[in-house]
Specification:
By secondary structure, this protein is mostly beta strands. Helices cover about 15% and strands about 50% of the residues.
Length: about 100
């Protein structure tokens, strides 16, 4: 199931890529069973993504997933933007220099 989620993100990223010859420079996937996964990829257009997840309290009533990751892309202005994030029981928490804070 998690593999399908990860695969869907990669397919979406590939479809969102600009027209032209974009090559996959790095592609690592590791499904560690029911309780965790890791993946990373890097493309020749500067797009990168890394993510890892673990299930906390596996099999219990309080089971939850904790995801940590980052993604980078080159904006129309030629600058590389990087976002790091955590997604867990407290919601999605992105962090980046270009994201305004409250």
């Amino acid at each position: 199931m998690k593999f399908l989620v990860v695969l869907s993100f990669i397919v979406a990223a590939a479809l969102a890529a600009p027209a032209g010859d974009v090559e996959i420079l790095k592609s690592d996937f590791e499904n560690l069973g029911l309780d965790s996964y890791n993946f990373a990829y890097e493309q020749s257009d500067g797009q990168k993504r890394e993510e890892s997840a673990v299930v906390n309290n596996f099999g219990s009533e309080n089971e939850s997933i904790a995801i940590r990751g980052s993604f980078s892309f080159v904006g129309d202005d030629g600058q590389t933007y990087t976002v790091t994030y955590v997604a867990d029981e407290n919601g999605f928490q992105p962090s980046a220099a270009h994201i305004p804070t409250a």
